[in-house]
Amino acid sequence: MLYKFHKIPIIAVALLLPALAACTGSAPTRFYLLNPLEGGVQKVQKKAVPARATIGIGPVSFPAYLDRQQMVTRVGDNELHLAGFDEWAEPLKDNFTRVLVENLSRLLPADTVIVFPFRGPETVDWQISVEIIRLDGSLAGEVLLNARWSIYDRKKGHLLLTKKSAFSHPVDGPEYGDLAAAHGRAVEALSREMGRAIQTLCLDGETP
Q1: Which of 21, 84, 96, 143 has CB atoms 3.0–4.6 Å from 137's, for a disulfide?
Q2: Where are the extended beta strands (E) located within the chain?
């Protein structure tokens, strides 16, 4: 009798394992990335760019609630939802920073755009620090990007500009891929605003 008592649960578990595996395999994790601007972006240059003009991006800071692989959606003013099977392919802060640098490299005629911490032989002429306050949205809703950023003249040792920016972009569909694409458009809008300010204050040498 003792033998039969232990045998029944073992058989039940053996039958249950394939079912669990099938359930797990039916919902694979999906991974997403932000994309930079399309190639061939026209750079606008009003005046001659200083020789070896180098722009340094960073430090870039993100709120702690975005320091996770899962994609975050907002379901209420004070409530967030973490996706179960939809994740960023790398930390969102790293992806954001790389895309921002790539966008500015395509938008500006500066010789070099590099990322903080600054290493190597390049001397940074202007430093742009970025604080992301909010970057999230809702499926089939909109993505909101709020950021505070500054431009600092490292050669002259003074602050040129501090600005708070806010952008919203619609999410074109109910899927997380649509949400990731809307994130990318919000980052593009921030890149363009920053690019115009850098062009005016740094490369053209005009006062704000």
Answers
A1: 143
A2: 30-32, 54-61, 70-76, 79-88, 112-115, 126-137, 142-153, 158-170
The sign of the CA dihedral 65, 175, 165, 42 is: positive
Q: How far is CA 196 from the centre of its chain?
A: 20
Give the dihedral sign, CA 108/131/60/98. negative
* pLDDT digits (tens), the chain, 208 positions: 444 444 444 444 444 444 544 455 567 999 999 999 886 455 555 455 555 689 999 999 999 999 999 999 998 888 999 999 999 999 999 999 999 999 999 999 877 898 998 887 778 999 999 999 999 999 999 999 999 999 999 989 999 999 999 999 999 999 999 999 999 999 999 999 999 999 999 888 755 4
Bridge partners of 114, per DSSP, are 56
Rounded to whole angstroms, the Cα distance separating 31 from 87 reads 5
Q: For the chain, what are the domain ranges?
A: 31-203
| 3-class DSSP assignment, residue 54 | strand
Q: What is the distance between the alpha carbons of residues 152 and 88, in angstroms, rounded to a whole number?
A: 31
Residue 110, exposed/middle/buried by CB under 10 A (0-12, 13-18, 19+)? buried
Beta bridge partners of 150: 129, 162
CATH number of 31-203: 3.40.50.10610
Single pTM value for the model: 0.81
